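step 3/5: co-fold with zinc ion
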Amino acid sequence: MSTNGVRPSATAHPGRAAPQPTVDTPRVTGLVRELLIALGEDPHREGLLDTPARVAAWWCSFLSPDPSAMATCFTETHASDQLVVVGGLNVWSLCEHHMLPMKLDAHVGYLADGTVLGLSKFGRIAQRYAGRLQMQERFTRQLADEVTTAIGSEDVAVTVHGVHLCMSMRGVRMEMARTSTVQAGGRFKTDPLLSQQFLTLSTAELRGAA
Ligand SMILES: [Zn+2]
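step 4/5: write tokens
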């Protein structure tokens, strides 16, 4: 029924992945030591001795995503025009304005029209885009774009519910504040019933997880 061209067994374009920064671990270690000093701390006291190296190692692992995160598609001829919603994609990212953590809970919906995205890959795609200095709005769009490319169809919708520590522990200090973002393409934009079905399913899944 969908008029969008579906590419069976399509794979995401490896070239689409945004370039990853290279972490200069020794430099980060030195800078964290400097930061401790600038904050009035003594980096030689027992509890802080290994902190710079530990923080640098964390940055390195946070910014080095799993290289196997390329989406895999299966050809499934029986899956015609079926709404698939994958939820529970919980990832930690870092807000680029404050460099504070944000917890992002994503739901991806698409119409399985001949191509089914391997379920286990969604989490890895989400993790790859979370492992960088990020904005929730951009993360939502990147996730939608990657799935759109992988399945070769515009019929993709993504919702993300985010809890931002920059809102919870600084500024207005609203612990329960949540930010929700939606990116809808293809028929999710033009078909109100489909859009409603997706939002209902992703919200139900969210309530179930709470
Ligand atoms: Zn922030």
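step 5/5: annotate
Confidence is low (pLDDT under 50) at residues 1-17.
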